[in-house]
Amino acid sequence: MPIYADVIVNISASDLDRSFQYRIPEELRESxxxxxRVDIPFNxxxxxxxxxxxxxxxxxxxxKILPLTGLSKKSAAVEDxxxxxxxxxxxxxxxxxxxxxxxxxxxxxxxxxxKAKVEGPDLSDISPEAAPTLNEAQTAAVQAVLAERKGANxxxxxxxxxxxxxxxxxxAVIEQLLAEKKQVILLIPEIALTxxxxxxxxxxxxxxxxxxxxxxxxxEKYETVEKAKKGQIDLVIGPRSALFTPMPRLGLIVIDEExxxxxxxxxxxxxxxxxxxxxxxxxxxxxxxxxxATPSLESFYKAQNGRYQLLRLPARAVPESRLPAxxxxxxxxEMKAGNKSVFSRLLRxxxxxxxxxxxxxxxxxxRRGYAGFVSCRSCGKALKCPHCxxxxxxxxxxxLRCHYCGFSVRFPDRxxxxxxxxxxxxxxxTQKVESIVRKEFPEARVLRMDADTTKGKEGHSRILSxxxxxxADILVGTQMIVKGHDFPRVSLVGILAAxxxxxxxxxxxxxQTFELLTQASGRAGRGALAGEVVIxxxxxxxxxxxxxxxxxxxAFYAEELPRRELLHYPPAGAMLAVGVSGTEEAENEAFAxxxxxxxxRAFEPLGAVLIGPTAPFRSKVQDVYRQVMFVKHPDRxxxxxxQELTRETGGVRIQTDIF
Length: 659
Ligand code: ADP
Ligand code: ZN
Ligand code: ZN
What we know:
Shape: globular
CATH class of the largest domain: Alpha Beta
Number of domains: 4
Mean pLDDT: 85
CATH topology of the largest domain: Rossmann fold
Largest sheet: 7 strands, parallel
Bound molecules: adenosine-5'-diphosphate, zinc ion
Distance between the termini: 32 Å
Strand content: 15-25%
């Protein structure tokens, strides 16, 4: 039972280190928790603060520590909620209370006087256009969400192809909530946070909107946060961090493109926005609405089980805009016909056709999860781990390794399936593709969009707007180009190698591939022009490619779920990833091995399955060595106990992630 509590009196991340220690009276020791609001004597007054730390040891001389007076009866609803959320995140993601608070609490910083010029709404070019009359499916979805609010208030999953009118549904629901004097948070992926996309919201909701993005200064962000807290803003739009905007009258959180990887934080706490939003809604009595054309397997699984309410939009909203025609090209056949170019004969023909008609083309190189997977250029088979069903990865020492179990095998001279000598690690980059395009289509104007060309502050919008204004015929890019951009003149999308993500060393490889292919295909034919898509692949028979070509999410789900179930991968079970890192290689390995042994001994009898430890793809980064292990069990609470065990460290750093 802790005896002392660290209390902060100011709710802002910048004041976290200004905590004060108080003694907890005997009778309160059972009831005070992290995040509790307590009354304390402070400068001879009684004020309230929040408990952010608990300990058995006094930090200063014992007799200088005052007792706290009691659990506070006062409540400032938003702050209490964010505190409770932080305490929950600490439990769920196994981080420290401080890390959780740093994530959840606003950083206090006044913005400079004389207002910096922010790229922002030039409201003059907005025609407040009226909302279209919703179609039957949209109306049903809106009504279902509003009805659910009055009942069990389960989260809703709006499942509809790109262009099916999901955004119109969000807006209709938001409009209703605002009319009820509620506040709303809308999350969209950072990369889709473009003026083009925001315009519709400004046109509909005017100046009651606050936008948060990562390019803003802390001061600009804080200003938005303060306005939201005072109720001067009703709708906040932003990437995952916008989730923590303190909204006293929060009634709804909408998460667009809910499957997006960017909703998972890569910093500790490694939280997932959908889970956090669900918790925040529960704490606030708010509703949660998720939307996607390709929901994450987790979300669709919950919708199938009735944990979420499933809302469907089966067709594109504008009748004349139809889904594009998709053709799959087998690259093995190209190889047989002597064509070793990155363009198949079909794709080359279609590109020439488009250039002639002055229509635009997007060429997409799928580099997600690309980490040196190895495949046969003749038969297309990727070299996979016999135990884990994920791709093996090429390491410089000449071995192929599995990142889950550590299985390794020497790089083969010949393909184990067909004997061909053309076995290679896949390695075409966007830059190379760009130069090939310039050489093969000298008359075309080409733009490239990838991590390198978008470094500057306005990198993205510069390239996208140049392309949108017909400043180029061909846009070459990575997954960046597939997210929610609308280019009406694009009538051809070429996917150069669908396989790059298919065999990545991640159990979600097929899902990510399906998602990327579907989203990329969705870029073609958004306007009046008919759209065509060419998917080039060594694995035309793979279900992720087949179902993406058919734009059939449910067919994909039906193939994928049993595979997850068979191998106990999420959502059919829970998985804990444990990363151990340290500067001494031997010590680090020994620690990982020792930890693995302790987990085995304590939890294998309870049904947990431990894989590893093994060296991950980047086993040494900046002189820090890494080891990873994975624990699978159907019950997440057991994994949390294991996570607890991993907290006792000695000289090494441990990072855990629960899927
Ligand atoms: P999504 O968010 O699913 O991609 P949007 O809401 O952006 O779809 O809608 C796609 C296009 O269809 C937009 O141009 C939108 O204005 C139009 N649209 C949506 N709903 C309707 C409707 N009921 N009637 C006419 N046009 C619609
Ligand atoms: Zn082969
Ligand atoms: Zn393996």
